[in-house]
Amino acid sequence: MKKSIDSMVEEYRKIRQDRLDLDKQAKALGEAERVLKDLILEELDRLQLKSAGGEDFTVYKQQKTLVRVSDWEKFYNHIQQTGHFDLLQKRPAVLALADRAVDGDAVPGVELGHYFDVSVRTKGAK
Length: 126
Known about the structure:
The chain is mainly alpha-helical. It has one domain. The chain is built from three helices and two strands; from the N terminus they run αββαα. It has helices at 5-46, 72-82, 94-102, and strands spanning 51-53, 58-60. It is flat.
């Protein structure tokens, strides 16, 4: 039996709300996880340890690399001069490219396409 649009939209709304509720829970859990990681790092530092172990775990202090560009102009100039394009991630800025296409300023090597999605709003909701 084929579902009606009403029943499909109702099921969609329920699933979407369930996902949004889970997203909120995941965000709260992620924050609690971050706080605990910070506390564990502080304790390892306080004890001057690189690792610690318990009955069923071992925790390691690991150094990670963080990159922040302080001068984009210098960074881009370096990439252009050296050809080190591997320093960039290959991901186009969708909104900027779409805006240029609307203005008639097509960017070479880029294809702009469209697809359909479904948007469901609850009556009375803003």
